[in-house]
C-alpha cells in the first residue's frame, strides 16, 4: 500500500514539475490567472472590469483594469505604471478601502498576478511606461518647512478640494467624479493614512505624478522639489498620527 | 465486503447523491469573514478548511486585515459575524474482529451520518481584541456546548507582532490543525494516540487535537513566515484537576517558512513542536467521583517532534506535502498499576493536498498516511506490536460554488485503519470507511 501511495505522489510531482516551468523575473500570465481567481476575482471581476460580485456593495469601487489607468504610480501623469508600482500597491494595500495588502503572498504570486492584470489592457502591449519621476531625498521635517508648506498649500489651492483645514471638505469636494463615473471624496489629510503608503516619499509622489483617473491633478510642472517636500511636511503636520511618528523617529505612518 | 454488500453500498451512495443534488440550491446567507472583507474562501484557504499563507497571517493578526476597516465601528454596518457549517454525509463503515458479547464479529453498516452543525462567530471588537466562539452539538441527539471560545489580545507590547495572547478554549497550534483538515473519516493518529495495556487503563487520554483550555502566547513576523506559540493549558479530562493551573500542561511550537523565487518548489517549512501534559494520579473522591482540584502526584504524558512542509508549483494551486514525526511517552503511574513500566511510541503522518491548476480551484485531491509504532509497551509481557496502527485516507473535494457568501462542495473519501491485537481475542482489527457528502458553509 505504502509503495503505491509513494508511487502516485511521485507521479503527481512529476506532472506538476512539467507543467510549471516558469521563467524568472517576468511573471507567468497563466499562473497569474490562478492567483487572480484565488484572491482578486471577487472584487475586480473575471473580465478585469472591476465588477466582481462584491463590487456592487462598495462605495469605493475596485479598479477597472481595462483602460490601464492606475492611480498610484512613480511614473509621470499619463504614463502606464511600472511593475514595481503595482507591486507597491499590492504590498501596501489601499488603506480605508476594500483593497487588502497582499504582503503575505509570495513574491512569485505577486509577480504572476501583475503580469496577468496587465493583459486586461491593450495599452501594455503597445506603450512603454515612461521613466519614473525623480524623488530627491527628504530634507527632513521641521517647523520652518511646515510653515513654508502651508503657504504652498494655499498658493496651489489644494483647499479647493481638500478644504482649508485639510479635512477633505473644500468647495469642490462634493461634485468630484472619477473617470469611471463614480463619485469620490478628496482625501482627509488629517486622518494620517494616505491610501497607498505612509512614507514621506509615498505622499510626495501623489501630487508630483497625480492620481490618474481622478480629479487629483499632478503639480509636477509647477512645483519645485523643495516646495514639494515642504508640502509633504505640511500634510504630515496635519495629522496627529504623523506627528507622533515623527517624534519617535519613524519615517512611516502608523500601521 | 461481499459482492452483494458492495452492490448495496453503491445503491445507497447513488440514492444519497440524488437526494443531495435535489436539495442543493444556491445558499444566500454569509460566511463571516468572506462577507466582511468581500473575499472568497480561496483567499484564506488552500483548500477549505486548510489555511494558506494569507489565511495564516490573517489569523495571527487577530482576524484583521489592518486597513482601517476591521473593528465593529469601521467595518461595514451590515456585517454580522456569524457563519454556519454543516456536512451531511453518507458513511459506510466496516469493522473486523469486533469483540461482542456474542463473540467475534465483522460488522458493517451504512447510513446518513448524524451530522452536527457548527455555528461560528468570530470577529474584531477593538483593534487589539478579537474573539471566536463556536457552539456545536446542534445534532438531533446532542447537547449544544461550546467547542471553542477565546479572546485574542494582539500586539500587547510596543505594538509588536511578536507578543499576542489568546485566552480561552482553543486548539493548540499543532503542525497540522485537526480542526482544519480535509479528512473527515479519520483523525490524526499521532495526536490522539496513547500507549495502552491490554484491558488496562491510562489516565492520560487527551487528544492533542481537541480544544484545550488555557493561555497561548503567539508571536510572528509581519507575514507569519517565522512564528512561535507557547501554551499553558489543562489537558482535557484530567481527573481531579481543577481545570486551573494546578496541573498545568505545556505546549510549544516553532515554525519557519522559506520561499523560493524560481524552480519547482515555491515554499518549504520546517518546525519543532512539543507537549508536556500533566495528570494527577491521586485525588480525593466523593461517592467514587474525583473532586476537582484535589489531584496530586502529577505524572506526565510527553510528545515532541518535527515537521516539514513543501509546496510544489504555484502557491495558488500547489501540491502540498506535509510530513510530521512525533515521539510520545506516558509515565508508568498513569496506568494505575496495570503497567510495569512507562510506555513510549513513535508516530507520524504524511499528508498530500493537491489543488489542480483548473479554473477557480474547483478541485482538490488529498490523502494521508498515518503510522504508530510502539517502542516500549507499558506492560512488558504484551506483544511488542500491540496497538501498532496504520491508516490511510484518500479523498477528493469538488467545490460546486464559491462566492463571497457561501461555499458548497461535494466530498468523497475512503479510509482504512489497521490496529494490531486490539480486536477479539487479541486479533488485529481493521476499520474501513467510505464517505460521500456535501459540505457547506454560509
| CATH class identity of the largest domain in chain A | Mainly Alpha
Strand coverage percent of chain A: under 5%
String of helices and strands of chain B: HHHEEHEEEEEEEHEEEEEEEEEEEEE
Distance between termini of chain B?
37 Å
Indicate the CATH topology of chain B: Porin
User: What is the alpha-carbon Rg of chain A in Å?
Assistant: 21 Å
What is the CATH-assigned architecture of the largest domain in chain A?
A: Orthogonal Bundle
CATH class of chain B: Mainly Beta
Shape of chain B: globular
Major sheet details of chain B: 16 strands, antiparallel, barrel
**Total individual domains of chain B:** 1
Structural class of chain A: mainly alpha
Oligomer designation: heterodimer
What is the residue-mean pLDDT of chain B, rounded to a whole number? 88
Number of strands of chain B: 22
Our Rg estimate of chain B from Cα atoms comes to: 23 Å
Shape, per Cα inertia axes of chain A: globular
Question: Which terms summarize this structure?
Answer:
heterodimer; A: 255 residues; mainly alpha; Cytochrome Bc1 Complex, Chain D, domain 2; 2 domains; 11 helices; 0% strand; globular; B: 442 residues; Porin; 16-stranded antiparallel β-barrel; two-stranded antiparallel ribbon
Characterise this structure:
Chain A is an all-alpha fold and 255 residues long. Chain A folds into two domains: 23-126, Orthogonal Bundle (Cytochrome Bc1 Complex, Chain D, domain 2); 143-236, Cytochrome c-like domain (Cytochrome Bc1 Complex, Chain D, domain 2, Orthogonal Bundle), CATH 1.10.760.10. Helix content of chain A is 42%, strand content 0%. Chain A contains eleven helices and no strands. Chain A has helices at residues 2-19, 29-39, 41-44, 83-92, 107-118, 123-126, 143-155, 159-162, 200-209, 225-238, 240-247. The radius of gyration of chain A is 21 Å and the shape is globular. The N and C termini of chain A lie far apart (52 Å). Mean pLDDT of chain A is 87; it is low at 17-24 and 249-255. Chain B has one domain (3-439): Porin. In chain B, 43% of the residues are buried. In chain B, the strands form three sheets. Chain B has a 16-stranded antiparallel barrel with strand order 3-6-7-8-9-10-11-12-13-16-17-18-19-20-21-22. Chain B has five helices and 22 strands. With 442 residues, chain B is mainly beta. At the A-B interface, helix 1, helix 2, helix 3 and helix 5 of A face helix 4 of B.
Amino acid at each position: 500500500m505504502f509503495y503505491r501511495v509513494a508511487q502516485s505522489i511521485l507521479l503527481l510531482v512529476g506532472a506538476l514539475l512539467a507543467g510549471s516551468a516558469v521563467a524568472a523575473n517576468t511573471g507567468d500570465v497563466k499562473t497569474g490567472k490562478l492567483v487572480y481567481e484565488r484572491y482578486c476575482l471577487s472584487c475586480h471581476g473575471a473580465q478585469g472590469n472591476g465588477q466582481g460580485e462584491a463590487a456592487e456593495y462598495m462605495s469605493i469601487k475596485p479598479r477597472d483594469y481595462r483602460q490601464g489607468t492606475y492611480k498610484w504610480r512613480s511614473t509621470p501623469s499619463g504614463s502606464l505604471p511600472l511593475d514595481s508600482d503595482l507591486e507597491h500597491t499590492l504590498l501596501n494595500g489601499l488603506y480605508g478601502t476594500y483593497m487588502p495588502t497582499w504582503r503575505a503572498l509570495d513574491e512569485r504570486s505577486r509577480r504572476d498576478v501583475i503580469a496577468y492584470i496587465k493583459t486586461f489592457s491593450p495599452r501594455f502591449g503597445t506603450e512603454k511606461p515612461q521613466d519614473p519621476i525623480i524623488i530627491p531625498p527628504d530634507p527632513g521635517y521641521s517647523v520652518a518647512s511646515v510653515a513654508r508648506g502651508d503657504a504652498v498649500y494655499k498658493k496651489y489651492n489644494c483647499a479647493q478640494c481638500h478644504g482649508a483645514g485639510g479635512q477633505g471638505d473644500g468647495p469642490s469636494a462634493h461634485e468630484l467624479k472619477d473617470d469611471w463615473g463614480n463619485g469620490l471624496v478628496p482625501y482627509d489629510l488629517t486622518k494620517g493614512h494616505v491610501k497607498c503608503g505612509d512614507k514621506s516619499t509615498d505622499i510626495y509622489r501623489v501630487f508630483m505624478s497625480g492620481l490618474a483617473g481622478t480629479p487629483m491633478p499632478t503639480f509636477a510642472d509647477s512645483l519645485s522639489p523643495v516646495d514639494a517636500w515642504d508640502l509633504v511636511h505640511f500634510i504630515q503636520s496635519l495629522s496627529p498620527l504623523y506627528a507622533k511618528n515623527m517624534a519617535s523617529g519613524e519615517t512611516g505612518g502608523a500601521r | 465486503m461481499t459482492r452483494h454488500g458492495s452492490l448495496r453500498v453503491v445503491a445507497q451512495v447513488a440514492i444519497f447523491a440524488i437526494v443531495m443534488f435535489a436539495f442543493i440550491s444556491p445558499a444566500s446567507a454569509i460566511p463571516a469573514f468572506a462577507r466582511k472583507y468581500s473575499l472568497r474562501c480561496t483567499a484564506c484557504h488552500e483548500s477549505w478548511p486548510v489555511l494558506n499563507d494569507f489565511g495564516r497571517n490573517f489569523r495571527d493578526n487577530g482576524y484583521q486585515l489592518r486597513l482601517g476597516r476591521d473593528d465593529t465601528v469601521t467595518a461595514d454596518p451590515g456585517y454580522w459575524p456569524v457563519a454556519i457549517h454543516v456536512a451531511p454525509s453518507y458513511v459506510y463503515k466496516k469493522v473486523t474482529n469486533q469483540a461482542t458479547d456474542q463473540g467475534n464479529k465483522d460488522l458493517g453498516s451504512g447510513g446518513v451520518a448524524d451530522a452536527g452543525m457548527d455555528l461560528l462567530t468570530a470577529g474584531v471588537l477593538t483593534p487589539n481584541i478579537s474573539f471566536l466562539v463556536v457552539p456545536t452539538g446542534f445534532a438531533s441527539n446532542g447537547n449544544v456546548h461550546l467547542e471553542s471560545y477565546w479572546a485574542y489580545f494582539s500586539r500587547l507590547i510596543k505594538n509588536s507582532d511578536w507578543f499576542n495572547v489568546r485566552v480561552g478554549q482553543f486548539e493548540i497550534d499543532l503542525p497540522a490543525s485537526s480542526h482544519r483538515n480535509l479528512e473527515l473519516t479519520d483523525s490524526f493518529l499521532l495526536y490522539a494516540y496513547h500507549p495502552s495495556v491490554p484491558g488496562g487503563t491510562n489516565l492520560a487520554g487527551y487528544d492533542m487535537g481537541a480544544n484545550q483550555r488555557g493561555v497561548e502566547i503567539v508571536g510572528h513576523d509581519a507575514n507569519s513566515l517565522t512564528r512561535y506559540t507557547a501554551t499553558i493549558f489543562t489537558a482535557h479530562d484530567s481527573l481531579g484537576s481543577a481545570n486551573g493551573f494546578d496541573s498545568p500542561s505545556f505546549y510549544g511550537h516553532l515554525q519557519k517558512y522559506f520561499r523560493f523565487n524560481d524552480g519547482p518548489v515555491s515554499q518549504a517549512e520546517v518546525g519543532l513542536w512539543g507537549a508536556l501534559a500533566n495528570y494527577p494520579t491521586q485525588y480525593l473522591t466523593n461517592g467514587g467521583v474525583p473532586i476537582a482540584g484535589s489531584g496530586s502526584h502529577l505524572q506526565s504524558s510527553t510528545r515532541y517532534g518535527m515537521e516539514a512542509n513543501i509546496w510544489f508549483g504555484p502557491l495558488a494551486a500547489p501540491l502540498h506535502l506535509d510530513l510530521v514525526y512525533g515521539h510520545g511517552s506516558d509515565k508508568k503511574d498513569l496506568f494505575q498499576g496495570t503497567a510495569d513500566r512507562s510506555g513510549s511510541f513513535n508516530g507520524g503522518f504524511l499528508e498530500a493536498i493537491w489543488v489542480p491548476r483548473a479554473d477557480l480551484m474547483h478541485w482538490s485531491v488529498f490523502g494521508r498516511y498515518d503510522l504508530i509504532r510502539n517502542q516500549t509497551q507499558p506492560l512488558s509481557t504484551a506483544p511488542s506490536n500491540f496497538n501498532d496502527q496504520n491508516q490511510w485516507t484518500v479523498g477528493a473535494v469538488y467545490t460546486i460554488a464559491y462566492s463571497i457568501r457561501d461555499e458548497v462542495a461535494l466530498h468523497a473519501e475512503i479510509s482504512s485503519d489497521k490496529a494490531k491485537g486490539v480486536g477479539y481475542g487479541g486479533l488485529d482489527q481493521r476499520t474501513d470507511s467510505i464517505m460521500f457528502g456535501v459540505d457547506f458553509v454560509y
